[in-house]
């Protein structure tokens, strides 16, 4: 197949043919990475979130092996993956990025095989196949410690967050307002099942009335504009409705919007969650709100902010909401993803068992047959 010099990332566009490099091998490698970045940019992939991490992984492979891509073999790839001290899913991520890079440099349309042969009498070859890749055998390969919080743990977390407010007030410390903000933020994240970035990106106009439930006021739903994006696409949007079991959060948000937030003097800034400098909270501060309350509550340090989202999914299922409704609420493309989040309690399963027994046999759970 002939070289298509007009393709973004082709060798002809990133490697000047009439220039003689004093150190040719690193120059060609750098041009490969630049071309790969251009090719991904043309597909509207994000520079900071996708392209830059991929390039760093390829560079790390080169540093480990001491070789260049046209010299790499499956042996180098296997040794590199074996040297990583990471979880299975992260190792698979490395393999995927390296495989994508090698697909790019071995594709004749971009001209790298011809360039490498002319300059080094070698051509790059794919290193990974089904025989030396990490096998995907489980739907969930994250940290085992990440799990939904029980109702008691959620209450302990909120009590600890509220306790920070009372403690700061008693000591007449300056931190009472941030503590009150953090407590309201955590309650909202749980009550709507939000990701960190989704909560971080909320503006006041994103608070929505639900005409079907007027008693929730302006807090009947949230327009989420910073949902998790697919590769090459902008953040996904969705509207999350407030469910009756979480209606207590409407009062929390009303107090924040009407009484506490104005004390920050945010002016015309639209952010729902603001700082004392009248700016939007950072994503890191959102995480810190959780970890501070978690540690004060004495909860397992393995638990992180995302566990509140797991808790939301689990508790909606235990409230008997249909799976499709739960999936739409949290913005999952596939029901299988929602299922991974769920970790229903023994009480819930026993209740289902009791209902099934009553329907089929007229028996009560625990009653002698």
What attributes characterize this protein structure?
hpI Integrase, Chain A; 2 domains; elongated; 15 helices; 369 residues; 3 strands
Notes on the structure:
The protein has 15 helices and 3 strands. The chain has 2 domains: 11-120, no CATH class; 151-359, Intergrase catalytic core (hpI Integrase, Chain A, Orthogonal Bundle), CATH 1.10.443.10. Strand 2 and strand 3 (236-241) form a beta hairpin. Helices cover 52% and strands 4% of the residues. The longest helix is centred in the middle third of the chain and has 20 residues, at 151-170. The chain has 369 residues and is mainly α. Helix 2 runs antiparallel to helix 3 (47-65), helix 3 (47-65) crosses helix 5 (88-106) and helix 8 crosses helix 11 (283-297).
User: How many distinct domains?
Assistant: 2
- Note the main sheet: 3 strands, antiparallel
- CATH architecture type of the largest domain: Orthogonal Bundle
Low-confidence stretches: 136-141
Could you give a short description of this structure?
Helix content is 52%, strand content 4%. The chain is mostly helical and 369 residues long.
Strand and helix layout:
Blueprint: H1 11-14, H2 24-41, H3 47-65, H4 74-83, H5 88-106, H6 112-120, H7 151-170, H8 176-192, H9 196-200, E1 207-208, E2 221-227, E3 236-241, H10 248-260, H11 283-297, H12 306-318, H13 323-330, H14 335-341, H15 346-361
Helix pairs in contact: 2-3, 3-5, 7-8, 7-11, 8-10, 8-11, 8-12, 12-13
